[in-house]
Amino acid sequence: MNKNERQLFERLRNDDEAAFKVLFNDFYSKLYYFVLEFIPLKDIAEDIVQDTLVTLWNKRSELKDDSNLTSYLFTVAKNNALKRLRDKKYRQKMFSNVMDVSELNLNVAALSTIDTSVCAFTDIEQIIQETLFTLPPQCRRVFELSRFQEMKNREIAEELNISVKTVEGHISKSIKTFKVALKDYLPLVAYLFVL
After folding, report:
1. How far apart are CA 121 and CA 146, in angstroms?
2. Cα(9)–Cα(15) distance, rounded to whole angstroms?
3. Which residues are in the RNA polymerase sigma-70 region domain (predicted)?
4. Are 45 and 39 in contact, with CB atoms under 8 Å apart?
5. Residues 129, 138: Cα–Cα separation, whole Å
6. Which conformational region is residue 15 in: left (phi greater than 0), alpha (psi within -120 to 50 degrees), or beta?
7. Domain segments of the chain as ranges
8. Architecture of 3-117 per CATH?
């Protein structure tokens, strides 16, 4: 943990709701996209993330000084997701909406094997930054507009005065490059690769 994270962590342990809100905002989308990889129903994924963050608040005084907050949160999210994947009521909802039995069982198996101790987002952020700067300038710009500013392909094409097909090509090339660089972290950063 860096100094700022350590201070937030200490404030959280001392019942500081403002610190919790900062952590909530920092972790919500990371946890959401992690859970969504295995449970492709947005409402259930949102519930799991909410439950995970409520657990953080409820157990804040039990956290140890040397706790890895990121690892803790992803472990709680993973366990909450596994509970839902194994719950009969939720399995039926997922079958009727998006998954067949074999796909659901694969998701349970995949989620069970994830080592949440590798959830070091500072490492991931560093790899993303380094990989980003290996991309050709226009390819990098297209990726940044698409993934970080959430612009649509048509909007990017208009802004950069290129065709939509060129935008799609740049995004595809970027995604391939990132998948190689982040192969050990794919479940955690899958939201970058959603086309």
Report:
1. 21
2. 10
3. 23-89
4. yes
5. 16
6. left
7. 3-117, 121-192
8. Orthogonal Bundle (1.10)
Give the per-residue pLDDT at 158: 95
121-192 — its CATH code? 1.10.10.10
Using the CB atoms, write b or e for 110-126: b if 16+ within 10 Å: ebeebebeebebeebee
Displacement of CA 5 from its chain's centroid (Å): 19
* Residue type, position 169, single letter: G
Mean pLDDT by 10 residues, the chain (195 residues): 76 91 89 82 90 94 80 89 78 57 54 56 72 92 86 93 95 89 69 49
DSSP at 38 = T
Return the H-helix or E-strand segment holding 111. Answer: helix 101-113
Question: What are the tens digits of pLDDT across the range 40-66?
Answer: 778 888 999 999 999 999 999 888 876
Q: Which pLDDT score, from 0 to 100, does residue 189 have?
A: 61
pLDDT at 33: 82
